[in-house]
Amino acid sequence: MNSTTEVPVPLAASLPSPAPLPEPLRIAVIVGSNREGRFGPVVAEWLLGRIRDRTDLAVYVVDTADVHLPTALSHSPSAEVAAELGKVTPHLAAADAFVVLTPEYNHSFPASLKTLIDWHFHEWRAKPVAFVSYGGLSGGLRAVEQLRQVFAELHSVTVRDTVSFHNAGASFDDQGRHKDPSAPDAAAKVMLDQLAWWGLALREAKSVRPYGG
């Protein structure tokens, strides 16, 4: 009868190598209002604080107040318009996902935001979009519902959960800190978790098969 001798396998060799951590998702926060006296920067700073606490997200800001695009669209923009597009288009193209920050004006979203959206197409495709809104009693939710239709036309995926601030001006103190942050902080985590899932899933899918919709 033949006998065999088992050779012990070192423990380290028997374990699979840990998967490398994915590169942080590039999140563009779009400040949608360029209105004089706007409240958007206060909400934007609150949001940026929530995003910067996370290691899976890398964030930068696209502010509609910093770019001056005409409402008359053109396939052959002038040199002046091309220069304005150069301030923002590369940032949108590089983003893996977006958070759109919008107020509600007359039951809708600002013209500055619509202009920024309409000057671009490929930059939005097959990317997820989340929303943070603010306003009076409605908290900007009617603006968000309209934006969902706009981004669906652009082949974007909008995440379900949002963050909305009702009577936003009364919710923050003079230093821009939310007076009762537990609920909005929890809502932001849910929204950002969904955005991160979709952002990673779509980024990985596009690396295997380009989106052809």
Short description:
This protein has 213 residues and is of the alpha/beta class.
Envelope shape: globular
Terminal residue distance: 66 Å
Uncertain runs are none
Percentage of residues in helical conformation = 25-40%
Going by helix content, strand content and strand pairing, the class is alpha/beta
Mean pLDDT: 92
Question: What is the beta-strand fraction?
Answer: 15-25%
Describe the structure in your own words.
The structure is a single chain. By secondary structure, this protein is an alpha/beta fold. Helix content is 38%, strand content 16%. Strands 1, 2, 3, 4, 5 and 6 form a six-stranded parallel sheet that branches. The N and C termini lie far apart (66 Å).
Descriptors:
alpha/beta; 6-stranded parallel beta sheet
Question: How do the helices and strands line up, and which of them pair or pack?
Answer:
Elements: H1 11-14, E1 25-31, H2 40-52, E2 57-63, H3 79-94, E3 97-103, H4 111-118, E4 128-135, H5 141-153, E5 157-158, E6 163-166, H6 182-208
Parallel strand pairs: 1-2, 1-3, 3-4, 4-5, 4-6
